[in-house]
Backbone:
């Protein structure tokens, strides 16, 4: 795997090193030694999958707090997404900054999202499947989020969402929440 720094402190885009032949390719998507050598989380307790049937489906922007704050390792298995992360760690050099990454079945890239980040994605095609590892078990009481179109971040989505859940549409703006006392890093 090749680990690439991003403009956001501690986040990484991970490029698979494919070994290919006439059958296709083989690549590692996780190696404890390689992740540890990069100073990244190596303990994942859950693997999740989402399937979105319609282009323009938006999921996010989510995070978990306290002891349930989680690291995510995300990969798009079919179709394509714009995966967006926002650094919500007040002490970070990239605080309140966001970056988007195209993850697709074609590029096979992965995204490493540290604790303290909000995460979401928009599907760029129909029939998208996303799979991700998380370092903490899902805890509904620790869940939080910010609105996908919050002016505090001004995320440049490629188009308006065609499908978004009522819950995701109703997340409050960043400025209306008390993030100073919120433990986003466990």
Residues:
């Amino acid at each position: 795997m090749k680990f690439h720094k991003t403009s956001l402190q501690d986040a990484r885009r991970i490029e698979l090193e494919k070994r290919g032949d006439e059958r296709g390719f083989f690549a590692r998507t996780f190696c404890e030694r390689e992740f540890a050598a990069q100073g990244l989380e190596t303990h994942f307790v859950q693997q999740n999958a989402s399937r979105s049937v319609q282009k323009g489906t938006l999921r996010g922007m989510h995070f978990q707090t306290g002891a349930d704050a989680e690291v995510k390792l995300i990969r798009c298995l079919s179709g394509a997404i714009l995966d967006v992360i926002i650094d919500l760690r007040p002490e970070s050099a990239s605080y309140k900054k966001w970056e988007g990454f195209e993850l697709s079945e074609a590029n096979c890239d992965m995204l490493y999202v540290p604790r303290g980040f909000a995460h979401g994605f928009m599907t760029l095609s129909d029939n998208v499947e996303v799979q991700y590892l998380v370092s903490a078990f899902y805890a509904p009481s620790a869940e939080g989020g910010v609105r996908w179109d919050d002016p505090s971040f001004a995320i440049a989505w490629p188009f308006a969402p065609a499908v978004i859940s009522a819950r995701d549409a109703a997340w409050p703006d960043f400025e209306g929440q008390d993030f100073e006392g919120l433990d986003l890093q466990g």
